[in-house]
Give the backbone structure.
Amino acid sequence: MAFIFSILLMLADHYGRYTDMLRLGLTTLIQPLEQVANYPQQLSQWLTHRQSTTEALALENQKLRTENLLLKNQIQSLSHYQQEAKRLEKLLGTSASLPDYQPQIANVSFYSHRPQAQFLEIDKGRQEGIQPQQPVVDAYGIMGQTTLVMPWSSRVLLITDPDSQIPVRIRRTGQRGMLTGIGHDQTRLDFIPSSSSVKTGDLIETSGLGQVFPAGYPIAEVTAVRTLPESPYLLILAQPTAKISLSYKVLVLVKKPHRNFKK
């Protein structure tokens, strides 16, 4: 009995090997076919994944561009505010030597650059205590004086307007004259004798006569000196020290009321 059982085991083992070999052969044959059959599905999955990745990258790229644009805008805004702070600091610094005046900061809302009508309009008026014939300056010098004053705005006659005449003096020599506007953002210094030693580059300042402008405030710089035949006076051209056509923030110099002290 044991002998017969041993023979059966040998036969099962023998045919089992053939069965395994057959199974291996079929598996080897079928595997490429299965791969080919699965290829469309794999390709579809790969394309879907690629499209999703491309869309995600596109969204990320758009997000980065937006963030970059916002950062650039913030940098520009920061730079603008820094420059604005510097301008205001310089502008307010010009009033430190004027204890008799209470400066009012104003914004330029309109600028007329016509040769025969040179004026500004500012956003301050009677409601802020502005009155006619008050000096208007920027960080570099005298710009003009208020003329027409309305409740919330004022017109400023520029020193370059032909109707503008301001008593001045040459800082280096002390000679007095009259600064007259000639349009085109230019001025002329009148009534300086031909014997004067005035020269190009001399600074012209307010004399304080006329009681409109404070004395000693820079107003123009001599750019040309010419001798006129048969004239006792020189022809002197001068460039305003103020940035007439560039300044958009100015100071209106409002005189402080005098206090009467009783003994």
Q: What stands out?
A: The two ends are 149 Å apart (CA to CA). The longest strand covers residues 101-114. The chain is about 35% helix and 30% strand.
